[in-house]
Design goal:
This protein is α/β, with parallel strands linked by helices. It has two domains: 169 residues, 3-Layer(aba) Sandwich (Rossmann fold); 147 residues, 2-Layer Sandwich (Dihydrodipicolinate Reductase, domain 2). 33% of the residues lie in helices and 28% in strands. Strands 3-2-1-4-5-6-17 form a seven-stranded parallel sheet, sandwiched between helices. Helix 1 links the parallel strand 1 and strand 2. It starts with a strand and ends with a strand. The relative contact order is 0.16.
Length: 379
């Protein structure tokens, strides 16, 4: 039994702590006592206390008492938090999905003899893991990930709910999307190149450009075609594009009745009531990962992984918390069981290349009823 500290008691952080507490001694921290109390009410085995992860000295002194750190802080503070953890010579599994390039911390991690596995969620996360696995099996030519977290009940006008802050969602809608086409990195405007995709038990979804490739642009640069798209119910993109083009997501302040107001912050305040996912509100996660490449026989294989996961009434855990959180706890247990001991910074595609690690994580997810429907076509 290992001693694990989880930084962040949000929807996903709490789900991870509760899952890990089945086999480990887990301490959950956050700046919100209310969030900690709610998690403790769900799992009495948890130890909880308030911790300001942004306080570097306090953070580093605290985590030294543990065997492993799980980082689930908000994205805007993720990079500095992971850096502080590495500097403290502690191993870490991270799901903060910070916008900075995690690989710039690789040299530091090696110097500190630390393992840091980042982007350990569903997407980025499991899609990277699948890509890494098949990168060892095939000479890959194509990779595509389509992913979306959606409410079960569609409510006009946006037909969308988010398990996190609207400002993090809007970031997806404003940051230029990077793709790889014919071996060249290209930039697309987000919310463009919309296409309709059919999914069993869900129906038609709308996929659009978003900046989700992240680390694989560097780590899988030999693959000539790679793209990621976010999915929503049809109609969502049009409403969001109207807001974006009208200036509602602008960061430069404007004067309103003598007060200087940020359009983005105002929009987030207004959208929060429509986009906030209720604690027990049913939602689902849909993902389709497609890889294509040449096998050892010279044949072209196309493998498709379809994921459809829903809110768990039994544990009162959202699908996004399940798919993101349990991907990370699977990775944590895999690491603690000694299957992956490399030193440095590793996004999941560099873990998935190890078949034993890949199978371990997939089996762990299956035990929690998170399963992929897999199909293969040979051309």
């Amino acid at each position: 039994m290992s001693k694990i500290i989880v930084l962040g008691a949000g929807m996903v952080g709490s789900a991870m702590a509760i899952d890990l507490a089945k086999n480990h001694k887990v301490t959950l921290t956050d700046i919100s006592q209310d969030a900690l109390t709610k998690a403790k009410q769900k799992c009495s085995d948890l130890s909880i206390f308030m911790l300001y992860s942004s306080n570097k000295n306090e953070l580093q002194q605290t985590i030294k008492k543990f065997d492993l750190v799980i980082c689930a802080v908000p994205g805007f503070m993720g990079f500095e938090t992971v850096k502080s953890i590495i500097e403290a010579e502690m191993n870490v599994i991270d799901i903060s999905f910070f916008p900075e390039d995690s690989l710039v911390l690789d040299t530091l991690a090696k110097e500190k003899n630390v393992t840091a596995i980042v982007d350990s969620g569903v997407a980025p996360g499991l899609d990277n893991l699948i890509l890494g696995y098949y990168n060892e099996k095939l000479k890959l030519s194509d990779f595509e990930c389509l992913v979306g977290g959606l409410p079960k009940i569609k409510t006009w006008p946006f037909c969308y709910k988010a398990p996190f802050s609207p400002i993090d969602v809007i970031e997806e809608y404003t940051r230029p999307a990077r793709y790889v086409e014919h071996g060249q990195e290209v930039i697309r405007e987000p919310l463009t190149d919309c296409e309709y995709i059919e999914f069993e038990n869900v129906g038609t979804l709308e996929a659009f450009n978003s900046d989700g490739l992240r680390s694989i642009i560097q780590t899988m640069s030999h693959i000539p075609n790679m793209k990621e798209k976010t999915m929503r119910y049809p109609g969502h993109v049009e409403y969001v594009r109207v807001l974006k083009e009208s200036g509602f997501f602008d960061t430069e302040k404007i004067e309103v009745d003598g007060a200087m107001v940020s359009p983005l912050k105002m929009s987030c305040k207004i959208l929060f009531k429509d986009w906030k996912l209720g604690e027990t509100e049913e939602e689902l996660t849909v993902m389709r990962v497609t890889v294509k490449g040449e096998n050892k026989l010279g044949e072209i294989e196309e493998i498709v992984y379809d994921l459809h996961d829903v809110y768990s009434k039994e544990t009162e855990t959202s699908s996004m918390a399940r798919t993101t959180g349990y991907a990370a706890t699977a990775t944590a247990n895999m690491f603690l069981d000694g299957l992956f001991s490399n030193k440095g910074v590793f996004p999941p595609e560099l873990v998935g290349g190890n078949e034993e690690c890949f199978n371990y994580i997939m089996k762990y997810l299956e035990e929690r009823n998170i399963t992929f429907k897999i199909s293969k076509t040979i051309f």
